[in-house]
Design a protein that fits this description.
The protein is built from 2 helices and 29 strands. It has about 400 residues and is mostly beta strands. The longest helix has 25 residues.
Length: about 400
């Protein structure tokens, strides 16, 4: 009876060991990460902001070469020259008509381009307005910030403008995003505030807890909260629609965060212009940073594609980068001769702090399973061997 109980115990332990080993070694299909880089055909393009386009490609501005460009998943880049010379285009975003809208910082215009490369431009009423960012509004119009003239602008698809003066003088508005509350939210870099404005032009402003934070870009998360980066405070901030702030310090010091975007999983991605990294932070404040292979790349804009991959511009190295999150157990290897691949900063984790390929826990489990199986077979043989 004792031997039978021991046999059952060994068999149960063996089966449990096999199941547990299989469970922890099953790869997370989203754990494989590679960083690909694609050089832009012409140097000195100074790629800046980007967005996911309606044709499935990533669109970005080349502020140095005065172009709007797109890149497909294979890394092929197509460029379109903005009609106004030296316009300094920034902040591409998909408008309600399916075209790519952007600001012309020095051209003092709002531009739009079709996916076929046909441009239309609208001159901003205020001269030398210093338009910096643009977004689609809840009323079907495009809303943008005027950094120099201290206004929030609105333009219809037909090119009709309305401008609203920000209450705080010299606030230097930069990033702007549509909120789920139906208002437009924006960052005041010099005013050190996060502002919101209704489609009727009514403003509310919220002071950022960190003084001199240098708020720059804004984005809304899946919970309806507004996230922003603090270039001088080296933090990622969050504010509710009621004006309650939470701030999270970026692990890399003096990283100079630039663009910020929410992904489809509810996390926040941002570029570290000086830190030479792409950062990710959960809504609970947990950071992950990915080092860019090219040193001094000065990442600027960031965007997510339909497959959940994260794209970014490298303004210092004239490249487009991609953090490829592959739906396979192994990191992808780029077949594009003009790209470079960098493995994940950490191998896929078993959930116990060790890579699946070399976890001591797996070795112990395998050893225990083998011993238990051997002991079970020996007992089974002794129980059933014929008597002499």
């Amino acid at each position: 009876m004792v031997r039978l109980r021991m046999l059952k115990t060994n068999i149960i332990f063996f089966i449990a060991s096999l199941l547990f080993t299989a469970f922890i070694t099953t790869p997370n299909v989203f754990a494989a990460i590679a960083i690909n880089e694609y050089p832009i055909p012409i140097s000195s393009d100074y790629p800046t902001d980007m967005t996911y386009g309606p044709n499935g490609n990533i669109w970005f501005t080349e502020s140095g070469s005065n172009e709007i460009a797109e890149i497909n998943s294979a890394g092929t880049i197509t460029e379109y020259t903005v009609p106004t010379s030296d316009s300094a285009p920034y902040s591409p975003v998909v408008g309600p008509n399916g075209n790519i809208w952007f600001v012309e910082y020095t051209g003092n215009k709002i531009g739009e381009v079709t996916t076929a490369g046909v441009f239309t431009e609208y001159t901003i009423p205020t001269s030398n307005s210093g338009s910096t960012y643009i977004t689609k509004g809840p009323n079907g119009n495009m809303w943008f910030t005027e950094m120099r003239s201290n206004k929030i602008g609105e333009v219809t698809p037909a090119g009709v403008f309305t401008e609203y003066a920000i209450p705080t003088s010299n606030s230097a508005p930069y990033g702007i995003a549509e909120g789920s509350d139906g208002n437009l939210w924006f960052a005041e870099q010099s005013g050190n505030k996060i502002g919101e404005v209704t489609t009727a032009g009514v403003f509310t402003e919220y002071a950022i807890p960190t003084s001199g934070s240098g708020a720059y870009s804004v984005a809304e998360d899946s919970n309806g909260n507004i996230w922003f980066d603090e270039q001088y405070g080296n933090k990622i901030g969050e504010v509710t629609t009621a004006g309650v702030f939470t701030e999270y310090t970026i692990p890399t010091t003096n990283s100079i965060p630039m663009d910020i975007q929410a992904d489809s999983n509810g996390n926040i991605w941002f570029t570290e212009h000086q830190g030479n990294k792409i950062g990710e932070v959960t809504t609970s404040g947990t950071f992950t940073e990915y080092a860019i292979p090219t040193s001094g790349s000065m990442p600027f804009g960031v965007a997510e594609d339909a497959s959940g991959n994260i794209w970014f511009t490298e303004s210092g190295s004239d490249k487009i980068g991609e953090i490829a999150i592959a739906p396979v157990s192994n990191p992808p290897v780029s077949t594009n001769s003009s790209s470079t691949t960098n493995p994940s900063p950490d191998p896929p984790d078993t959930g116990f702090g060790q890579p699946a390929s070399s976890s001591p826990l797996l070795i112990v489990l395998a050893a225990c399973a083998s011993v238990s199986f051997g002991a079970g077979l020996r007992l089974l043989y002794r129980q059933n061997r014929p008597s002499i």
